[in-house]
Amino acid sequence: MKARVHVMLKDGVLDPQGEAVRHALGGLGFGGVSGVRQGKVIELDLADDATEDTVKEMCEKLLANTVIETYQIEFV
Amino acid sequence: MKAAVVVFPGSNCDRDLAVAFRNAGLDVEMVWHKDTALPAGVDIVGIPGGFSFGDYLRCGAIAANSPICNEVKAHADRGGFVFGVCNGFQVLTETGLLPGALLRNAGLKYICRTVPLQVETTDSVFTQAYEKGEQINIPIAHHDGNYIADDETLAMLKGEDRVAFTYRENPNGSVADIAGILSANRRVLGMMPHPERAAESEHGNADGQRVFAQLTETLASA
């Protein structure tokens, strides 16, 4: 079983890397990109009996810093 | 008085911090991140600068979950002193011993230069040898020193006089120009600038020396 964890900076937390990517897109001639947010995707290979609660605990303890980040768990 | 300096894979300021502690009259023991106990009788734990675990995941995140950090947390909970510099500050925010977080510098660049700081409080073992409002010049060397905290946390830090140092010329986008903060009991200090790199005349600048100067004396009476 595989879980995919998406970690993003919270809304309102300035993302200077996303901003740099937005500028670069503009420089390449892609107009109309009004915002870019850059996050992380973490894929976990898990035992078949792993639960969402366990993955949630992993996120809270290590994978995300909930002071500045949000996370979403997806089983694939 | 005894200090322990924690060493993670990727720490690179651990020996500098040990020298600064020794010069201040402390006995220093180095402890490895896999150790499950601090040496007996440790008064202060130093979390050094560097790039623990290659800054993978988030700066300080993996270090904050290493076995020794449980002991560092227990030491702080018992009222022990902790001093985190640079990556050490990042580790302290990741452990939750200090509030807020450190993000990528606003200008996206790694910055390595000496910057002017303002001493915001003298009410701590680390800042008592300075004058309130005094300007000191201390080196910074970081890529992720952009301090962030929500409005409520900031109001608390300011209301409780827990901002230790601010930048006179904000180099990294830190909210409220914050360069270093104290815990509620004022015994844990985390700061991005490196006072241990400006702690003796041979460094060409000894402005950071007073962070360490009175540790032995004050810890003995704490």
What is the structure about, briefly put?
The complex is a heterodimer of chains A (76) and B (222). With 76 residues, chain A is an alpha+beta fold. Helices cover 32% and strands 28% of the residues of chain A.
Question: Could you characterize what this model shows?
Answer:
Chain B: Keywords: ATP-binding, Cytoplasm, Glutamine amidotransferase, Hydrolase, Ligase, Nucleotide-binding, Purine biosynthesis. Chain B: This is Phosphoribosylformylglycinamidine synthase subunit PurQ. Chain B: Its main location: cytoplasm. Chain B: Pathway: Purine metabolism; IMP biosynthesis via de novo pathway; 5-amino-1-(5-phospho-D-ribosyl)imidazole from N(2)-formyl-N(1)-(5-phospho-D-ribosyl)glycinamide: step 1/2. Chain B: It catalyses: L-glutamine + H2O = L-glutamate + NH4(+); N(2)-formyl-N(1)-(5-phospho-beta-D-ribosyl)glycinamide + L-glutamine + ATP + H2O = 2-formamido-N(1)-(5-O-phospho-beta-D-ribosyl)acetamidine + L-glutamate + ADP + phosphate + H(+). Chain A: Keywords: ATP-binding, Cytoplasm, Ligase, Nucleotide-binding, Purine biosynthesis. The complex is a heterodimer of chains A (about 80) and B (about 220). Chain A has about 80 residues and is an alpha+beta fold. Chain A has one domain (about 1-75): 2-Layer Sandwich (Mth169, Chain: A), CATH 3.30.1280.10. Chain A is built from 2 helices and 3 strands; from the N terminus they run βαβαβ. Chain A has helices spanning about 15-25, 50-65, and strands at about 1-10, 40-45, 70-75. Chain A has a 3-stranded antiparallel sheet, covered by helices on one side. The longest helix of chain A has 12 residues, at about 15-25. Chain B contains 7 helices and 11 strands. The relative contact order of chain B is 0.18. Chain B has a 9-stranded mixed sheet with strand order 2-1-3-4-11-10-9-6-7, sandwiched between helices. A two-stranded antiparallel sheet of chain B has the order 5-8. In chain B, a hairpin with a 5-residue loop joins strand 10 and strand 11. Chain B is an alpha/beta fold and about 220 residues long. The termini of chain B are close together. Helices cover about 25% and strands about 25% of the residues of chain B. Chain B is globular and about 40 Å long. Chain B has one domain (about 1-220): Class I glutamine amidotransferase (GATase) domain (Rossmann fold). Chain B has helices at about 15-25, 60-65, 65-75, 85-95, 150-160, 210-215, 215-220, and strands spanning about 1-5, 25-30, 45, 80-85, 100-105, 110-120, 135-140, 145-150, 165, 180, 190. The interface between A and B is medium-sized, with 12 and 20 residues.
